[in-house]
Amino acid sequence: MTTPLETREDAYRDVIRTGRIKMLLILLVCAAPIIASYVTYYFLKPQGRTNYGELVMPVKPVPAAQLRTLDGKPYDFAALQGKWVMLTVDGGACPENTCVKKLYKMRQVRATQGKDADRVELAWLIDDEAQLETRVIRAYDATHMLRASGAPLLSALPPAPGGALRDHIYLIDPLGNLVLRFPKDAIPEKMKKDLERLLKYSGIG
After folding, report:
1. pLDDT above 70 covers what percent of the chain?
2. Cα–Cα dist 134/116, whole Å
3. CB neighbour burial string for 147-183, b if at least 16 within 10 angstroms, e if fewer
4. Per-residue confidence band for 43, with pLDDT thresholds at 50, 70 and 90
5. Where are the domains of the chain?
6. What is the structure's pLDDT at 114?
7. 52-201 carries CATH number 3.40.50.150
8. Which residues pair with 170 in a beta bridge?
């Protein structure tokens, strides 16, 4: 015979189970547009079409990171969630033939997205304490320039085998997942096509 206490315990377990199921369903609904975009883009693509950027597997969230703005104020990288983020890592000296080229490519690729450009943010993680040139700050003032020296976020950005972190431009999705790594000396026209497709198939961000 079931006692009142056992009945209450069973009811409590049912409530917890139902709550967990509801939470899981909510998470799946939120993630569905991103998952659908990846499946469509990477697994259901038409014959002969290949992506340019390399899919970073497994897809996982970048770690929370407290960075600093150029004037030393704290900046939570999670503030960029909800948008697609193209980012690069380089030193503050920002050589013209490497760092500046990456900043220029990111700016141009974003601009070519037309009405979807506002869905994309640009970020430069500065991995040292070198002083930036004023001309670079002014030329790329739409890019989030963030001091990231020692931040765990840097170690979460894997370079290509045999390559270096500063070689690449990375793409983070609106849920905060690192998804694409573009090759060294990436070709803007090919980057544009990758981003264009992801924005097309994604319902969020």
Report:
1. 76
2. 29
3. bbeebebeeebeeeeeeebbbbbbbbbbbbbbbbbbb
4. very low
5. 52-201
6. 95
7. no
8. 87, 181
